[in-house]
Every structure is written in structure tokens, then in C-alpha cells.
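Bug #77: duplicate submission created two jobs. Keeping one. Sequence:
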Amino acid sequence: MRILIIGGTGTIGKAIAAALAPQHEVLVAARSGTANTVDIEMPESIRTLMARIGRVDAIVSAAGQAAFRPLPDLSDEDFALSLRSKMMGQVNVIRFGLAAVVDGGSITLTSGTLAQDPIIGGAAISLVNAGLEGFGRAAALEAPRRVRVNAVSPGWVTETLLANKMDPTAGTPAATVAHFYVQAIEGKMTGQTIVVRRAIAG
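Kept job's structure:
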């Protein structure tokens, strides 16, 4: 398969690319560091990317940012960033990506377990993650030509915890997280959120 990974230079994105590369043609897109540049906060940038890459069998979005801050401290811009980047950025990946995906192909989004298990400081992230999962289910109902739409909901990633000098035992290695994206791409499910938890991720 020919697979586009948006956010393919990030921690999870690189692991997804590595998991897929032995058996598939992988196209990596990111804000910088790759021939396929894209900024998912800008709708026209996504449109331009889709026009440039042509037809693909699958699209994975592992991009987008959201503000992590206690609710009383969240500013208008914190909410605007979270909605513009992680939520609407990925919504637009579906909107503009559907035409690029072949019949029976797939689009996989990235939400996160704060949609199911909120924590202090994560209100804006919980908002966008839950919104993405709801939109993904709805989009799966309307996607044309049997295109499948799913989301993967990672928890804490070991490499990210290490980079932030936090306890890595609470995380799941990026390579393990990537396995769940491969399931979404190569499987038959649609309208699903695949929740990555340490207990099932090994």
C-alpha cells in the first residue's frame, strides 16, 4: 500500500513509519524536515499536500497540538490553538483527504486517552480528543467509496516521558503504540476508536 503519514517526523509518527516501511510505500509529511511539508493548522496547506501526493491507500494523522494547563489558567488562545491544531487540523485531514484515498482505503486520526480518562490540566486536550473521536465516528458513516475512518487513542508514550524527565514506567513504547495504527490501516474496522492502554499494549 501507499501510505501518507502526516506528523511522520514526531515520536509516534516515526514509529508508525518504521512499522509500515518493510511492507508498504510510506510518504512522510510534516511541518519541516521532509519533502512533503504541511501545516495542519492551515487548511490550504492540507489541500496543497493532497493535490501534490496524488492517490494513496491510507492516510494517518499523528499531528496536532493542544494546551496542557489548569482550567482556570487556560486562555482564549490556548483553546483556539487546541481547536485549530489538533482538532480542526485533523478534521480537515479527513475533509480534504477523502478524495485522495482509493476505494476501500482508510484514514486514521490520533486522539488520546484524556478523552476517556481526564486529568487535572488536561481539559483542553480532553475537549479536542473527545471531539475528534465523535467526528471520526460520524465521518465513517458518510465516507464515500467504502473509505474507512478510525482513531487511535494513545496514552503516555515512554519516549515522551523520558524526554520530559518523567517516570517512563507509566508509558507505552512508541513502537508498541504504532502497532495499533497498523491494525487500523490493515484491518477492516471503521468508525472505531482504538484505545491504547498499557494493560493491552504489553
